[in-house]
User: What shape does this take?
Amino acid sequence: MIMGAYFKDLFGGFWSLIVGLAITIKYFFQPVVTLQYPHESLKMTPRFRGHIDLVADPGTGEPLCIVCGMCQRSCPSGCISLKGEKPEGAKKKVLTAYTLDFTRCSLCGLCVESCNFGAIDFSKEYNLAGPSREAYVFDLLKRLKDRRSNADADA
Ligand code: SF4
Ligand code: SF4
Assistant: This one.
């Protein structure tokens, strides 16, 4: 009886070793899904909502924003502040400042929906980090210019 229990334990342990090894071998030959973050980043899905960003005119690289202020008025959290001016002789206002206080943003999307010019959209930023609240107050006009400079440098 004691010998029977001994062999049962022995074969039970051996079987669990075989099952474990089979799973290891199965995954060993499958493609690696682990990303070496922060050296590698995930590609976000098209509907992912990061903080908002200004959209540039593909032709000129300038912001599509016409400084109507609809996004600012529609934001329930008061996160957006913007400024514009009308240069001498110009027909339209030009955006001179666009700031987002992301510490108060709920990502509700009302600003994006209210913009009739497609001038703002959600970014794909998902791994933001900063030492203070001020680090989450974004100068979106500067971000747009930086993106343009980076694109020019890559070209
Ligand atoms: S609603 Fe659009 S066009 Fe109007 S100020 Fe906001 S981003 Fe600019
Ligand atoms: S997503 Fe909502 S809370 Fe955030 S800036 Fe736009 S309107 Fe405001």
Residues 1-33 form one domain.
